[in-house]
Design goal:
The chain has about 170 residues and is an all-alpha fold. The protein is built from 6 helices and no strands.
Length: about 170
């Protein structure tokens, strides 16, 4: 029995030292892992800030270009008929939207929903107003109807989306 007690006198401190060493090593490794994750996130944030700023810029430009007065000036050409203008407007809006679709990963879900709603509202106005003119009528008549309809809207979502994007960018950066 004394032999076991003598052996326990050596084994017990060794086991305690080993447990303490494992605990300390685990703490050091966890701290090192946490530090590395922090450094990675810090370097990723340095790269993400310019990309996010560019996304806000591109989406702001998209919304500005979708303002009825701006898009009509860009798309409408002399001697264009209303049906040609209608097709060109729809195609331009979809093309610009498709070009900027990837920017949604850099803005909030709220901002992206507002941008989609603004685009859909503009498409709705264009599609409703094209019914008011003859297909072979001059495109300027159709363009005037679009601008008038946009001015009559109680809530023009393009302006709301622009304001929201600007506020979100100022709040986050």
């Amino acid at each position: 029995m004394t032999v076991i007690l003598d052996q326990l006198g050596f084994i017990l401190p060794a086991v305690l030292v080993m447990m303490l060493a494992v605990y300390m090593l685990n703490k050091v490794l966890n701290h090192d892992h946490t530090r590395r994750v922090f450094e990675y996130k810090k370097s990723a944030a340095k790269q993400m800030v310019p990309m996010r700023a560019q996304a806000y810029e591109r989406l702001t430009l998209f919304l500005e270009r979708m303002q009825p007065a701006n898009i009509l000036v860009r798309v409408q050409v002399p001697a264009m008929k209303s049906m040609s203008l209608h097709g060109a407007l729809i195609q331009t809006i979809r093309s610009e939207y498709d070009h900027n679709m990837s920017q949604q990963v850099y803005v909030s879900d709220e901002a992206w929903v507002l941008i989609n709603q603004a685009k859909d509202q503009l498409l709705t106005v264009i599609n409703e107003e094209v019914r008011s003119v003859a297909p072979t009528s001059d495109a300027t008549e159709f363009g005037k109807l679009i601008i008038e309809a946009s001015l009559e809207q109680q809530k023009w979502l393009i302006d709301e989306a622009l304001s929201f994007l600007k506020k979100e960018f100022r709040d986050n950066y």
